[in-house]
Amino acid sequence: MYTMGIDVGSSSSKVVVLQDGVQVVAQAVVQAGTGSSGPGRALEQVRQFSGLTPEDMDFVLATGYGRTTLPMAQKQMSEITCHAKGVFFQEPSARTIIDIGGQDVKAISLDDRGNIRQFYMNDKCAAGTGRFLEVMSRVLEVDLEEMASYHFRSQSPASVSSTCTVFAESEVISLLSKGTPKEDIIAGVHFSVAAKACALAQRVGVRSEVVMCGGVAQNSGVADAIQRELGQRLLVTHDPQLTGALGAALLAYEEIMRKGKSA
Amino acid sequence: MSEKMPSQMKAKELLAYYQAKLDEEARQAKANGKLVCWSASVAPPEMCVAMDIAMVYPETHAAGIGARKGALDMLDVADRLGYSVDCCSYGRVNIGYMELLKEEAMSGKTPEALANSPAARVPLPDLVITCNNICNTLLKWYENLAAELNIPCIVIDVPFNHTMPVSEESKEYIADQFRNAISQLEVICGRPFDYEKFHQVRQQTQRSIAQWNRIAAMSQYKPSPLNGFDLFNYMALVVCARSRDYAEITFKKFADELEELYKQGGSAFKGAEQNRVTWEGIAVWPYLGQTFKALKNQGSIMTGSAYPNMWDLSYDAEDESLHSMAEAYTRTYINTCLENKVNVLLKIMEKGQCDGVLYHLNRSCKLMSFLNVETAELIQEKNGLPYVSFDGDQTDPRNFAPAQYETRVQALGEMMDQAQQTGQE
């Protein structure tokens, strides 16, 4: 039995295909989100890798900001529930989740069965999100993928505002013009993201294990900053960008099981 | 205007009919040289109505402009005058509208933004009356209106209730504020105050409020014959006409219709009511339909909201000391301590048999919204219901993102489902 989870976010499209609710048989990530060719390209990658298409699925469940734009999906669920499901599947000891995506930062608190106890998300502001890092990467002329290596070379992280992307951008430009090393600015940017995420995590109550997912978790510099800000261990999920899609595929499987029970 | 007689109209028709009639009466009053007063929504209208002054309510008017997608033009005027987007959007819409009316009065030409506005046309005021029982912005906003138009400003000052119940000293102070307003009105109107009519107006107000409370009580039934979003619409008359029989007639009709629907086993919800939510905060008027539909699409009906309940202004109309009336106008839940606010909301959730709560973090309404973070946590400690909050604004469409709202509402729906499933296991 195959189920598919599709997570169409603001800046990327992710697909996971599960067999019997446990085995990942195909996955794809395309760095183009809702309203773009991203979802179609991600599905095509899955087809090329596994020969599987949405028609071969017993259930397709969509999540992310583009969740309502996919005609092949039989159900849509919020990314909060999908991330919680995906993280708990990979790490059953997870009690606090920090998920940072393209335009969302969220902290989710789980009970010992993986149910959502509470969650908080960022407000209508890009500070602390993946988009914030993209803006900084452009200003600093450092690729996103290289930011972590700069972070770990920093001796004295600079102070960068966490309240507003535009304010932070001006601060970074000013730091650059003063000759502050890029390593220190980048570490400062990462601490700025961490401050925003940790404030949300503290609102839901930080309980071990704390697990990070979402595209930004691929930046080990941000993960390091969050760990230091929290003062406790932070785990990062395997393929963190795919956690939402994995959760969606798992929830798709649960849908079939539930229908089977009630049939 | 409809050709039907009011006695033949349904509640929804009565609502539209009386809203239009109130605006027309205000325009006629102005044309005939009678006084027009702009009033804060929970300021007591009883004294002005007793003196036969036509009343206009800027908050309701601004909400109407917002719901008809006309807020941006008015907000642009306020922006140009230097009002920050952090100021209340009701205030900014109204000040923008006032500025356009003033420009028209001074130049004899109707500004394009006013001519094209979907706003119901209301006349400029001859006086304003405000009250700080729901927020302090209303003081500066109305002072600004009075200063801009060089007209009298009546202020009913109401102390914040740091403890409950309301103290006798506070009631006496507020009753004095009413008496002072009466003296001001005698000067403004140039004639003695009509105490007999004042008594009748208080009695009328109580008849209107009694019918309003009949409507609000309908959400306790399951399935609910009342959709809470309807209260947002009918609220226009409890604000603008509670001291007139227009409100009483309309609310009685609506309450009768709801009772009949309930007796017939009907529900407000076309489709199965899967769960019930409380909406805490002011409506997002420019997106009223979308905010309602996101809930409806997942089977969530709103059966609890403290906002319309702010107009449960029940008091003893025979109490000539005016202490009872003073108490009614100060116990508004956002004019009370956090503990009382939590208790009021807990009762609303219990009465509405709610399964979850949606908190509107309203950029315009600091008093209602800033306490919501703490309120939400205290309430969850007591009743354990899942909740989410979303960022929005009552009338500035730029401060609300439908996609963010929909994600949070869907997550709330999923948390309520999860709670139901866990409860069944």
Provide a descriptive summary of the structure in words.
The complex is a heterodimer of chains A (263) and B (425). Chain A is 42% helix and 20% strand. Chain A has 263 residues and is α/β, with parallel strands linked by helices. Chain A folds into two domains: 1-91 and 238-263, Nucleotidyltransferase, domain 5; 93-236, Nucleotidyltransferase, domain 5 (2-Layer Sandwich). Chain A is globular. The mean pLDDT of chain A is 94. In chain B, the strands form two sheets. Chain B has a four-stranded parallel sheet. In chain B, strands 6-5-7-8 form a four-stranded parallel sheet, with helices on both faces. Chain B is 55% helix and 9% strand. Chain B is globular. In chain B, helix 3 packs across helix 5, helix 9 (195-217) runs parallel beside helix 11 and helix 12 runs parallel beside helix 18 (402-424). Chain B has helices at 11-31, 46-50, 58-67, 71-81, 89-107, 112-115, 137-149, 168-189, 195-217, 228-240, 245-263, 288-296, 306-309, 323-330, 338-351, 366-370, 372-383, 402-424; strands at 36-39, 54-56, 127-131, 153-156, 275-280, 300-304, 356-362, 387-392. Chain B contains 18 helices and eight strands. By secondary structure, chain B is of the alpha/beta class. The A-B interface holds A 65, 76-81, 115-116, 118-121, 123-124 and B 361, 380, 386, 388-389, 391, 399, 401, 403-404, 407-408, 410-411, 414-415, 418, 422.
